[in-house]
Amino acid sequence: MIxxxxxxxxxxxxxxxxxxxxxxxxxxxDNERCAVCDAQPVLTYVRNGKTVTRxxxxxxxxxxDVRNNRPENLITLCLTCHAIxxxxxxxxxxxx
Length: 96
What we know:
By secondary structure, this protein is an alpha+beta fold. It contains 2 helices and 4 strands; from the N terminus they run H-E-E-E-E-H. The strands form 2 sheets. A two-stranded antiparallel sheet has the order 1-2. The protein has a two-stranded antiparallel ribbon with strand order 3-4. A hairpin with a 2-residue loop joins strand 1 and strand 2. The longest helix has 14 residues, at 16-29. The radius of gyration is 14 Å and the shape is globular. The two termini are 25 Å apart.
């Protein structure tokens, strides 16, 4: 979520622009695969009558600091592994 709906939004300026520019680089570096389970998942759905296919990969901040968008702090996770990391007491990708 970008803009005012993002919990990290501050007066029109946020980390979002730099993070969005790093996403394709991190995906390419990680071969568009989850670093934990090696999956290459996609989502397919219908929007406005058209079938849309998009990546089901998230870029995760290893140190949990959303302002730290250096490539060495970003890792590609599938949505499942990312959710498990944030919602479970057992994480597939521990913080550093």
